[in-house]
């Protein structure tokens, strides 16, 4: 039997621990792993050729299932193409199990084809790495699911010949291996807050959770400002347009909290980060079950509260608390300015985002927002996502797999899955559409301003003569041709009339995925955005 | 001055040491590096958005210049997208200087955007890694050019604000920093071979070199078999169709050398590798100026000859030597079989490769052959490349950047630069065309068999029921739509008539790059190839 010993047992042990999806990248060396996965019968398998896209597709699946997803590739540079997704998963704390097929150890450094140094390929960016050893217990599921969740890597040396002969079946699975029991971290229990101090709660990236949101809403109703970007998936009661409230520089001293608590992961709004770094609260907590080190994005951390969000929220809701009142009272002013502004009808990305959020926000839709301008726009619009869950690759904030992540997340659901994405991020990751899993529930909205719009609005950057050629990706590709290849319906809009005509057919149910490409002028976009932000500054 | 101290001095020191090309990936954090490169005036700068493609583009440039090329990107996952090209450069021994912009060290692990662990990002796959320190000498050029040549990495922490203010010029370059002197390794000098033993010379991947080729030709004319794949760029005198000669299994014992010398880097032909592993010569030398470890692809190494190829060849040409005679006498038989076969006119990739090699081989063309089936076909055809230099990413044998490497290599030359590439490798790396450097001298020939043809010919693999869905990339994309996006002329051929009509217009001079996509049937390809190989086996 040419088939590697113990491989079916490895795969079965993962399945016994709850893993049931695998993204397989075609190759020869990893064929035995592929066979074990496909013939096991307990795995939903996906075949995706570009490993970079496949890794993010797997990330998208894991985001939806909260279980580790296997991503598997052949030997050589294939595994390196997984790295962007692995690192995003590491910082976004999403479980992934990376299985890389390898030459047997004695062939490393011998100039054999597709042979690189695969052990510890991902360095510090996995929670755990090990080599496959037949019939040995492994720690893949345990380590990927332990807080902080994240990617783990197993390198699997496989000797030739590795195909079973014609008609030969795979080896029987031996008796089940002893499974590791996941250890529960010891959690903190005392979350008492001084009732006399003014409190501000920030919420970083977090998945939607109804039980937690009910408690966040209670806190907001008690007058505690709870602020978070769209990626925080907070309830409507908490939506304060914080990035606009904080634009009013003269008011900043009045927003200063004495006490600050942060839930969730990374925060988008630079304004809030800079505010807390300057107006440091006396005490600042980070709530996390088990962070790596002491992440301190606000540079004011005084305590890591090692606990689950829900436990801290339950305690807070029972305490007497006092919020930073100036924040709440700024809300009406901001909303009045927004209302006046969005009565205008200038064709600019800001106004289009505002319009589209209104169109697509629904309980039956979820939204994947790409880096880096898209995720910022939805912090600024008057309309907000109150029903759709919002996802974004904010672990590393890369543009390298935004669309692939959305396509992965769109599997096995009837929800409409939207990707809001700029033209550069779309073209970068258009191999997301180079597979057979782009289902009819996918809706891609591309904001095409012919290049990286974000740099035109960064102070300093926008005045550099080199901006055009070397900082901004000036690109002329349109999505139409990619849509043709991938068999997607394509819609385009260059003005409000076209958008009004296209939006309903674009949103309507269909048997094919759809792309809506919206063309705008970068200069107008930047002018409008600057004018809009200026309204809030004084 | 917001501009980072010492950065213009770093860039100038690289220029003083001969570096004069840089591939810059748009971003914000790396803007100061971009400014130093662009405003220096001594660098040809290229702007490429997809870092994966940009890395290979840089590799293509370095292959042509034999000087280190800078590839530069912003912080976060951007640098990880360089990894496939960096690792290919490491194993193909091509100098690259990777400059990654980074957050200042105190922001690592603080959940700030686009912040990952960038130090030692490439692990063992760079020859040297260091962090930028202002006004300190660096070892980038020295280490990348020392044998074995390869990639080096400098991580450049940059604090905000990092744009010079409007109208502000960059700092003056301070007095030149002391440059490191490259150390010459001590070379072996005794290359005497026993005149009574039968000798076989194998040549792995190597760049074309006329002086060496004259000596290889002398050895061949003396009756010493010198065998190498197309990537060895050997002279016509050495072209023996070794993979076909060695297909004759009954003859293998007669091919056994008593003495074996290997020049160059990795070898494609698996048949030759397996032959030498079985019929081990008494002595086997690897000639390399300074290899990492003792690479032993043939598993029979007895001595590493630390020397340059030319020195060993000069010595060999002056010695009395005896070749493995059975190899030379098999040549005529192989050529007769080839001649008879290629009189047939079946529309299959094998016959098309044979035809096209005849059409495109010219002193004024160079050929980039993709992994993994393309590079094998050109070992099997009757026609060979005798004038065109042949390149291929055989360091890691990945498909991830074959086209980007060709586009990089096509800069600054009037030669026609061909990419021979399968449909999967083309689609995987189609972002190679997503830039403004695809010049009129580029000719891309895509062999579209709707998926990974190579697996259909691997014994074992071809009988697996899972072959279709999970091992082979079954893909339906055509290059036509990508050509539309990128503004390339597109030709297609489905049979000999169409190919005959298209080939001259395709080859003709033009002001635009051109794609010729050739559609074949995978089953016919595999049947023909198997029938052809069988002709040589008995």
List its traits.
homodimer; 18 strands; globular
Which secondary structure elements does this structure contain, and how are they paired or packed?
The structure is a homodimer of 538-residue chains.
Chain A: H1 7-16, E1 21-24, H2 31-40, E2 44-47, H3 51-65, E3 69-73, H4 78-92, E4 96-102, E5 128-131, H5 140-145, E6 151-157, E7 198-203, H6 210-221, E8 226-228, H7 242-245, H8 252-255, E9 259-263, H9 270-278, E10 283-288, E11 303-306, H10 309-317, E12 322-323, H11 325-341, H12 349-360, E13 365-369, H13 373-380, E14 389-391, H14 402-409, E15 416-422, H15 423-428, E16 442-448, H16 467-471, H17 479-486, E17 489-493, H18 496-507, E18 514-519, H19 522-537
Parallel strand pairs in A: 1-2, 1-3, 3-4, 4-6, 5-6, 7-8, 7-9, 7-12, 9-10, 10-11, 13-14, 13-15, 15-16, 16-18, 17-18
Describe this structure in words.
The structure is a homodimer of 538-residue chains. The first copy, chain A, is an alpha/beta fold and 538 residues long. Chain A has helices at residues 7-16, 31-40, 51-65, 78-92, 140-145, 210-221, 242-245, 252-255, 270-278, 309-317, 325-341, 349-360, 373-380, 402-409, 423-428, 467-471, 479-486, 496-507, 522-537; strands spanning 21-24, 44-47, 69-73, 96-102, 128-131, 151-157, 198-203, 226-228, 259-263, 283-288, 303-306, 322-323, 365-369, 389-391, 416-422, 442-448, 489-493, 514-519. The first copy, chain A, has a six-stranded parallel β-sheet with strand order 2-1-3-4-6-5, sandwiched between helices. In chain A, strands 7, 8, 9, 10, 11 and 12 form a six-stranded parallel β-sheet that branches. Chain A has a six-stranded parallel β-sheet with strand order 14-13-15-16-18-17, sandwiched between helices. In chain A, helix 6 runs parallel beside helix 10. The longest helix of chain A has 17 residues, at 325-341. The first copy, chain A, is globular and about 75 Å long. In chain A, 57% of the residues are buried. Chains A and B meet through helix 2, helix 4, helix 15, helix 16 and helix 17 of A and helix 2, helix 4, helix 15, helix 16 and helix 17 of B.
């Amino acid at each position: 039997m040419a088939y590697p010993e113990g491989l079916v047992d490895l795969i079965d042990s993962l399945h016994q621990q709850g893993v049931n999806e695998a993204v397989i990248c075609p190759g020869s060396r990893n064929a035995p792993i592929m066979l074990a996965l496909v013939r096991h019968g307990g795995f939903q398998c996906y075949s995706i050729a570009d490993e970079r896209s496949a890794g993010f597709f797997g990330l998208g699946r894991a985001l939806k299932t909260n279980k580790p997803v296997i991503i598997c590739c052949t030997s050589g540079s294939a595994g390196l193409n997984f790295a962007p997704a692995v690192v995003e998963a590491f910082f976004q704390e999403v479980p992934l199990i990376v299985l890389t097929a390898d030459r047997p150890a004695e062939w490393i450094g011998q100039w054999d084809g597709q042979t690189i140094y695969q052990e510890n390929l991902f360095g510090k960016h996995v929670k755990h790495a090990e080599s496959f050893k037949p019939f040995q217990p492994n720690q893949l599921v345990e380590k990927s699911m332990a807080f902080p969740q994240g990617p783990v890597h197993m390198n699997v040396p496989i000797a030739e010949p590795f195909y079973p002969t014609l008609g030969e079946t795979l080896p029987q699975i031996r008796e089940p291996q002893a499974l590791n029991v996941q250890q529960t971290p010891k959690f903190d229990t005392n979350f008492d807050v001084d009732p006399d101090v003014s409190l501000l709660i920030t919420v970083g990236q977090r998945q939607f959770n109804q039980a937690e949101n009910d408690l966040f809403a209670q806190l907001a109703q008690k007058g505690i400002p709870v602020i978070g970007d769209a990626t925080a998936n907070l309830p409507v009661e908490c939506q304060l347009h914080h990035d606009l409230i904080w634009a009013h520089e003269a008011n900043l001293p009045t927003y200063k909290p004495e006490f600050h608590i942060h839930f969730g992961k990374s925060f988008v709004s630079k304004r809030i980060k800079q505010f807390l770094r300057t107006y440091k609260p006396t005490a600042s907590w980070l709530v996390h079950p088990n962070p790596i080190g002491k992440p301190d994005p606000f540079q004011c951390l005084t305590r890591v509260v090692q606990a689950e969000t829900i436990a801290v929220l339950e305690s807070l809701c029972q305490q007497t608390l006092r919020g930073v009142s100036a924040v709440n009272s700024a809300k009406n002013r901001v909303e009045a300015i927004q209302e006046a502004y969005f009565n205008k009808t200038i064709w600019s990305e800001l106004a289009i985002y505002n319009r589209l959020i209104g169109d697509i926000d629904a309980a039956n839709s979820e939204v994947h927002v790409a880096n880096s301008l898209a995720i910022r726009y939805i912090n600024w619009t008057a309309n907000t996502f109150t029903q759709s869950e919002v996802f974004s690759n904010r672990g590393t904030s890369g543009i390298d797999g935004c669309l692939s992540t959305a396509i992965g997340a769109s599997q096995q659901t009837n929800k409409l899955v939207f990707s809001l994405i700029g033209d550069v991020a779309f073209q970068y990751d258009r191999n997301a559409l180079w597979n057979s899993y782009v289902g009819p529930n996918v809706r891609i909205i591309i904001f095409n301003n012919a290049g990286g719009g974000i740099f035109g609005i960064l102070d300093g950057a926008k005045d550099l003569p080199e901006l055009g050629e070397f900082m901004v990706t000036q690109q002329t590709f349109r999505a139409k041709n990619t849509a043709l290849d991938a068999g997607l319906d394509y819609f385009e809009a260059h003005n409000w009339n076209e958008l009004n005509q296209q939006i309903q057919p674009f949103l309507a149910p269909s048997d094919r995925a759809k792309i809506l490409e919206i063309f705008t002028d970068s200069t107008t976009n930047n002018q409008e955005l600057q004018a809009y932000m200026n309204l809030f500054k004084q």
